[in-house]
Amino acid sequence: MQPVNQSNGKINLDPENAEHGLAQLVLTVIELLRQIVERHAIRRVEGGTLTDEQIENLGEALMNLEEKMEELKELFGLNDEDLNINLGPLGNLL
Amino acid sequence: MDRLIYLYGLIPRKEEGQQPLPPLKGFDGTDNLYTIPIGDITAVVCQLDPEKYSEESIKERVNDDMEWLQEKAFHHHETVMALSKIFTVIPLKFCTLYKNPDSLKRAVQSNRSNMLYTFDLIAGHEEWNLKMYCNDQLLKKQVSGSNPVIEAKREEISQLSKGKQFFEKKKLDKLIESQLEEEKNKISENIHLHLKELARKGDVKKAWSAAATARKEDMAWNGVYLVEKSKVERFLEQIQQYEKELRENGWQLEASGPWPAYHFSSFS
């Protein structure tokens, strides 16, 4: 399996590597959602409205999610830069 | 219809008397450059066919014809560089055109005092640029490894339950990030202030994005300095010295020059 290693922020969809390009795209979307959820959770925790137990559960869930994401990245030979998309004047997606 | 005048740069007229203009080819590669005296200022120009080089046709080529743009921008830069080696030059921007010699004269006359001031400023000086790049990962290690506040926080976090650890670690990451930015600014600013003392003038320009520099590291600082010719060597030695001291911490310092005084002179 050829690792997809691009630092230019472009999704690779050439036919030979379509599977990888697709995995990269899907993981990019998942990573974006994961980070949104994480930021929202941090805001809730800092807001002070959650109980200790809720904080504990949320923290553990997010930690597991982060670990899972690392595993998936490794599986597909992707790194953090591959899961970012350059949106031109808007900067990077993540 | 008058032929267009392409303006490369302006020089003090008295300098033209001391040394003649060398033969340099003009923008379209046929005619040579020549000078137009305007009071105590001399304009270095070439002529262009107004039909071939109308405003629209230049705009079109700048936008669509990369090869042409590259060749002509290189020509402009090389020509201004050659002039700045011989004369005190106020360099003009790429493709500065006038309808005829009279419109050029009017523009120069209305800016005369500004230009005489600029000649005074840049005569005997060179413009140098310093770009500083920083490998964040290396500096981060240094910052987070040697900071007692961060060490204490780490110790505190390790006592917490798993779920809480997650949030506290995120907070700590943020703290390290902000410390890193602070450290980067502090180091860059110190270097800039010191170099500014060695120079006649120093300014901070916008740092370029990694996409523009095609480097992995972000540009931490982009400074431009007007340095007296006799002090250039000392100025560059100082930069080398900084580079040596900081290399281990992930810094790279890149000085370039001498440039025509694009930054320290303005003609408008």
TrEMBL record, chain A:
Segments traversing the membrane: none
Chief location bin: other
Origin: domain of life: Bacteria
Keyword Ribonucleoprotein: no
Database matches in InterPro entries: GvpK
GO CC annotations on file: gas vesicle
Keywords, sorted A to Z: Gas vesicle
Pfam families for this protein: GvpK
Subcellular location: Gas vesicle
GO term, biological process aspect, one: gas vesicle organization
Family, per entry: Belongs to the gas vesicle GvpK family.
This protein's name: Gas vesicle protein GvpK
Organism: Pseudobacillus wudalianchiensis
Automatic annotation (TrEMBL), chain B:
Keyword ATP-binding in annotation: no
Claim: Manganese is one of the keywords in the record: no
Protein localization: Gas vesicle
Record keywords, A-Z: Gas vesicle
A biological process from GO: gas vesicle organization
Main location: other
GO cellular component terms, semicolon-separated: gas vesicle
Family: Belongs to the gas vesicle GvpF/GvpL family.
UniProt protein name: Gas vesicle protein GvpL
Organism: Pseudobacillus wudalianchiensis
Lineage of the organism: Bacteria, Bacillati, Bacillota, Bacilli, Bacillales
